[in-house]
């Protein structure tokens, strides 16, 4: 492969939620282009450890783009420059030797910084708890084939259900709106017949929880869609709106 | 009615109201533009149209109230939403870069809706103070027929500037606003949304060019007076 | 010399014909009235498929549940990363499948080292799982007529795998997670995200609570309950490089083992044949490419040793489709252990490809020609994209390079038919237990087992335990809990106080090397003995030279990690001891000394047809081996053949 990279990293460091944060600048040399972005941070952390500085805290887990743990704003872009890519699936071959990379946490009032690059995303869980499910108890289900679901409907539902809950949509939105996240779950369940009995109650309570968490409103700038690592479409937001008005007026 | 107030005051509800008021205002703009285009048909037609319109006192009153409600609703919600949206991100990023495809316009309308809205509002206030409230350029247009009044106002240097910049910014506002309203109302369809987006852009350009053409026409026809 | 005990383990398998065992047992199990269920608090550790489904189902029944996970959200448990699918004996494709065949394939696939009764029950409830998941809104793949679609997985000649593109685990977990969150909303489940279990508290011989560390504040907490459900997944990260998530660890299971729960078959670890090969020393994890790819991809290496030509330049007649050659009946769809060993065999013989020579090709050329790009993209699009992102090579144009990697651990805490460990009140579900997969797990069976345990087994068996047991009230202030906190505190302090020079990552990587070299795809007596010494030496090094910065009373990822690696260093030795004692080859456990003439695993049913459950006596001390004999009445013991 090509030569290694020398990089300047500007990393947000913040000891705790109530402490002030600041950017610190680190030099990192001999970065392999075949490293993932998080592996590059691993190397930085090893370097910091050797120098006696506490490693940079960042969320990560599966490192294959599905758990939704990782999420950094890289040079002003959630999950970095590539479309439909999580931070862990971003490789250093997309950077150039000599680059300066600014690394920040998700920023939103609803996502307070816990430490360094880690934020608190529990509001997303609370939104799901407000109604992002089908109320079916174990043991009640009819045969799986009892209700046919047209293939394209199932596929569309999966397109929405593919959301990994990383919060990049919130991070990308200038209003820190969680509309894409909420709409993905509302759409997934509104499309499938199994989700129909509760669709009105679901959309109203999920939107109300979303508002209570302090997310902004959608102004249809569609940055969320562009930043979404799963390519969840903003047509889901329109569906959310539709579901909401149907529930409200019908 | 509690359900309605509650439902419409959520983030989704507010956007719904923004969309509805915005689209209705677009309708008003279309009518207004159509009426103004009569300037090009001729002095008599325009004056006749203006007098006919103003003779419908009740209609005017109702229209004014409706318009007032639409404007106030649209503007008040814009203020509330902008404030809430800013509160949703108290600390901004050090740098910010879009991940969207390169936009058609270098300055993207969707990120400047509040600013463009404020400029349109200022334009509107000046427009009303000249044509409706008669508190600006009062002397020059005293006793003039509508056609003449329009030409006099539009050839005032300050007004000329405002009546070119104002519609341009209005078009800029509509570039995003028109199609965006449909999305807020939940009207998004893979077949029709591209059409709506283009319609919005065409409408925005028509409104901007249409209204901005009047001061240019006024200047161009000055010598013939 | 390890001490051996027999007859100490009661598997509680019901009598009667295998088809009736579970029904019979369900009718015998004691019940608890709905009003009394409210009086019980159940601790569930882990929120993967097993944990989330158990927590939700128990809360639905009326129990009060406390659910713990180390991630910031229960939705991020590693079950989410499962790609391919979930098996069920629905026989929707009308291709001759049945509960009995699923059972048969699973027992055979496990190379006759699993408990027949458990496997049969798993096959029985598999159909209910599909029904339940569909009802939850899991968007399974559908045929054009709107009915559920199936695909084929390794080790089976029927199509019984249900799937959601290449993200089945995600969708099933989100289904279980949503059920869990519904109970959170209803107040029946209290959620403790970013909490790590550091110890099990046993009072009067029964599991009564756990010690956790709040990973944000660093605070150690004691939680009491009437039973503890351990759903903490597998220990594949003992190899450092694996397909597991970075946070997957053995700590919770190991703590329970140290408190008296026997650990069964720890050496049974599955090496998955289709993973993206290692590219450099900085590599932090390996990425799986779903087994479903073998439905359409053909595995090959060049016929010539050290052939460095571009794969597309190697003509058909110079390619060795070695799986199709060696196993004509199953071809590319042989079970994972067989496919992995065959790849290793080719690479060791010098036919490997890629810059390291440690890879084989998985080629879609024929499938692309046959079905077209669109069909292939609709089946595997996300996997192909993932491959492209990682390797910068386009699998639509160039064959994928793959190599086996550690993926799943069949071993785990020993449990009886009720999923109860050797500590009463401690139940173990999902990958964390040992029960259903024997020496090798078939593809699309892990999701099935996790959900079977959580949705359909523990709700019955837990009630029986609670109804039959008198439990004294306990409080977090009791000495047992306070001592547990002090112990955990001491351990963290001890790690921080070493203040050496080596990073945890470096030590972990060295452990991984030892395990991969000596306790990986092929094992020898000599190698395992060396490994044991090396592990001990490394463990000593850890406690004298590890360097962890920061304090205990704050979010400290380095400290969390060091604690987990410290436990891996203890656990690894048990794995090696187990591999050393099992002088046979079976499934994924391949002892080079015991193989057939054509290099297949050679089982020794005479001497090793048992579950090896180990009892802990102290770090570095020989554990006691308890044998649970395995009898095969339904599926006669035969040599597995996929030819």
Structural key phrases:
heterotrimer, A: about 250 residues, alpha+beta, Ubiquitin-like (UB roll), Fumarate Reductase Iron-sulfur Protein, Chain B, domain 2, 5-stranded mixed β-sheet, about 35% helix, C: about 650 residues, FAD/NAD(P)-binding domain, Flavocytochrome C3, Chain A, domain 1, Methane Monooxygenase Hydroxylase, Chain G, domain 1, 21 strands, globular
Q: Brief overview, please?
A:
With 225 residues, chain B is mostly helical. In chain B, 74% of the residues lie in helices and 0% in strands.
Question: How would you describe the overall organization of this protein?
Answer:
The complex is a heterotrimer of chains A (250), B (225) and C (643). With 250 residues, chain A is of the alpha+beta class. Helix content of chain A is 34%, strand content 14%. In chain A, the strands form two sheets. A five-stranded mixed sheet of chain A has the order 2-1-5-3-4. The model of chain A has no long low-confidence stretch (mean pLDDT 97). Chain B has one domain (12-88, 108-220). With 225 residues, chain B is mostly helical. The relative contact order of chain B is 0.12. Chain C has 643 residues and is an alpha+beta fold. Chain C starts with a strand and ends in a 14-residue tail after the last strand. Chain C is 37% helix and 16% strand. Chain C contains 16 helices and 21 strands. Chain C folds into three domains: 3-268 and 410-468, FAD/NAD(P)-binding domain (3-Layer(bba) Sandwich), CATH 3.50.50; 272-405, Flavocytochrome C3, Chain A, domain 1; 479-614, Methane Monooxygenase Hydroxylase, Chain G, domain 1 (Up-down Bundle). The model of chain C has no long low-confidence stretch (mean pLDDT 96). In chain C, helix 4 (99-109) packs across helix 5 and helix 13 packs antiparallel against helix 14. Chains in contact: A-B, A-C. Chains A and C meet through helix 1, helix 2 and helix 3 of A and helix 3, helix 5, helix 6, helix 10 and helix 11 of C.
């Amino acid at each position: 492969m090509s030569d290694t990279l020398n990089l300047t990293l500007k990393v947000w460091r913040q000891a705790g939620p109530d402490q002030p944060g600041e950017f610190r600048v680190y030099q990192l040399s001999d970065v392999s282009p075949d490293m993932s972005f998080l592996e590059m941070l691993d190397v930085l952390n090893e370097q910091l450890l050797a120098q006696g500085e506490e490693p940079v805290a960042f969320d990560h887990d599966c490192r294959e783009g599905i758990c939704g743990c990782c999420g950094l704003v890289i040079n002003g872009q959630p999950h970095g420059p590539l479309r439909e890519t999580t931070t862990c699936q971003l490789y250093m071959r997309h950077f150039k030797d000599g680059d300066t990379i600014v690394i920040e946490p998700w920023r939103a009032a609803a996502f307070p910084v816990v430490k360094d690059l880690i934020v608190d995303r529990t509001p997303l869980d609370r939104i799901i708890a407000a109604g992002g499910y089908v109320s079916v108890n174990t043991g009640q289900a009819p045969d799986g084939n009892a209700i046919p679901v047209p293939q394209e409907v199932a596929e569309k539902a999966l397109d929405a259900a593919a959301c990994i809950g990383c919060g990049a949509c919130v991070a990308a939105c200038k209003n820190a709106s969680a509309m894409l996240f909420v709409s993905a779950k509302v759409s997934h369940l509104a499309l499938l017949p199994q989700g129909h009995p509760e669709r009105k109650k679901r959309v109203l309570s999920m939107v109300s929880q979303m508002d209570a968490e302090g997310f902004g409103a959608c102004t249809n700038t569609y940055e969320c869609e562009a930043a979404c690592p799963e390519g969840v479409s903003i047509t889901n937001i329109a569906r959310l709106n539709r579901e909401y008005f149907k529930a409200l007026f019908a | 009615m509690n359900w309605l107030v509650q439902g419409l005051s959520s983030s989704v509800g507010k956007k719904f109201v923004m969309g509805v008021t915005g689209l209705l205002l677009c309708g008003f703009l279309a009518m207004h533009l159509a009426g103004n285009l009569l300037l090009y048909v001729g002095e008599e037609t325009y004056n006749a149209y203006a007098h006919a319109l103003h003779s419908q006192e009740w209609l005017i009153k109702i229209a004014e109230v409706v318009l007032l409600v639409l404007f106030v609703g649209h503007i008040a919600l814009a203020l509330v939403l902008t404030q809430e949206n800013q509160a949703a991100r108290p600390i901004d990023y050090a740098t910010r870069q879009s991940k969207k495809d390169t936009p058609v316009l270098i300055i993207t309308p969707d990120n400047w809706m509040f600013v463009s809205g404020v400029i349109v509002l200022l334009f509107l206030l000046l427009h009303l103070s000249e044509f409706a409230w008669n508190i600006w350029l009062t002397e020059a247009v005293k006793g003039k027929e509508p056609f003449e009044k329009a030409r006099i106002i539009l050839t005032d240097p300050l007004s000329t500037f405002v009546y070119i910049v104002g519609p341009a910014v209005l078009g800029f506002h509509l570039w995003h606003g028109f199609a965006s309203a449909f999305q807020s109302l939940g009207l998004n369809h893979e077949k029709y949304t591209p059409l709506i987006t283009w319609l919005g852009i065409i409408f925005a350009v028509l409104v901007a060019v249409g209204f901005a053409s009047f001061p240019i026409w006024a200047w161009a026809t000055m010598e013939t007076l | 010399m390890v001490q051996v005990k027999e007859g100490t383990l009661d598997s509680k398998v019901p009598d009667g014909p295998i088809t009736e065992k579970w029904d019979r047992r369900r009718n015998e199990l004691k019940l608890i009235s709905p009003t009394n269920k409210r009086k019980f608090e159940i601790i569930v550790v882990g929120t993967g498929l097993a944990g989330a489904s158990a927590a939700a189902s128990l809360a639905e029944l009326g129990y009060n549940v406390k659910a713990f996970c180390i991630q910031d959200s229960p939705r991020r448990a590693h079950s989410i990363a499962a790609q391919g699918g979930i098996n069920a004996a629905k026989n929707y494709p009308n291709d001759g499948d049945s509960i009995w065949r699923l059972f048969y394939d699973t027992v055979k696939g496990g190379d006759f080292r699993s408990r027949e009764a458990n496997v049969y029950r798993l096959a029985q409830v598999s159909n209910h799982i599909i029904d339940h998941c569909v009802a939850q809104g899991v968007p399974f793949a559908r045929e054009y007529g709107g009915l559920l679609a199936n695909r084929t997985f390794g080790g089976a000649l029927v199509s019984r795998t249900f799937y959601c593109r290449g993200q089945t685990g995600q969708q099933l977990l989100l289904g279980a997670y949503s059920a869990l969150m519904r109970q959170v909303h209803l107040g029946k489940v209290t959620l403790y995200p970013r909490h790590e279990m550091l110890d099990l508290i046993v009072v009067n011989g029964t599991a009564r609570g756990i010690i956790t560390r709040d990973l944000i504040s660093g605070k150690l907490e004691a939680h009491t309950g009437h039973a503890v459900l351990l759903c903490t997944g597998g220990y594949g990260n003992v190899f450092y490089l694996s397909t597991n998530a970075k946070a997957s660890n053995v700590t919770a299971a190991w703590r329970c083992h140290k408190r008296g729960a026997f650990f069964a078959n720890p050496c049974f670890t599955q090496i998955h044949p289709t993973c993206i090969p290692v590219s450099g020393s900085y590599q932090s994890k390996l990425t799986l490419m779903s087994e479903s790819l073998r439905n359409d991809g053909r595995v090959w290496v060049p016929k010539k040793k050290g052939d460095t030509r571009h794969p597309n330049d190697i003509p058909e007649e110079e390619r060795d489709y070695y799986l199709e050659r060696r196993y004509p009946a199953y071809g590319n769809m042989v079970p994972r252990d067989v496919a992995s060993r065959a790849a290793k065999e080719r690479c060791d013989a010098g036919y490997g490809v890629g810059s390291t020579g440690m890879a084989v090709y998985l080629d879609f050329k024929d499938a692309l020609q046959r079905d077209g790009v669109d069909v292939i993209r609709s089946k595997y699009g996300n996997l192909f994209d993932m491959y492209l992102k990682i390797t910068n090579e386009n699998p639509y144009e160039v064959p994928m390079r793959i190599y086996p990697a550690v993926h799943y651990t069949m071993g785990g805490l020993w449990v009886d038919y009720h999923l109860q460990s050797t500590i009463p009140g401690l139940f173990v579900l999902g990958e964390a237990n040992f029960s259903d997969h024997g020496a090798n797990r078939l593809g699309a069976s892990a999701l099935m087992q996790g959900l079977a345990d959580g949705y359909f087994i523990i709700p019955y068996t837990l009630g029986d335990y609670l109804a039959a047991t008198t439990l004294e009230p306990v409080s977090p202030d009791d000495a047992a809990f306070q001592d547990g906190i002090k112990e955990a505190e001491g351990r963290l302090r001890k790690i921080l106080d070493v203040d050496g020079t080596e990073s945890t990552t470096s030590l972990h990587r060295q452990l991984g090397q030892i395990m991969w070299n000596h306790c990986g795809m092929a094992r020898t007596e000599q190698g395992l003995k060396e490994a044991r010494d090396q592990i001990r030496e490394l463990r000593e090094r850890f406690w004298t030279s590890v360097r962890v910065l920061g304090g205990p009373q704050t979010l400290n990822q380095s400290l969390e990690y060091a604690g987990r690696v410290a436990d891996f260093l203890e656990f690894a030795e048990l794995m090696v001891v187990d591999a050393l004692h099992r002088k046979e080859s079976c499934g994924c456990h391949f002892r080079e000394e015991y193989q057939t003439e054509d290099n297949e695993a050679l089982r020794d049913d005479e001497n090793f047809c048992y579950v090896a459950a180990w009892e802990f006596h102290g770090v570095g001390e020989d554990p006691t081996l308890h044998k649970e004999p395995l009898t095969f009445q339904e599926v006669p013991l035969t040599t597995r053949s996929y030819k």
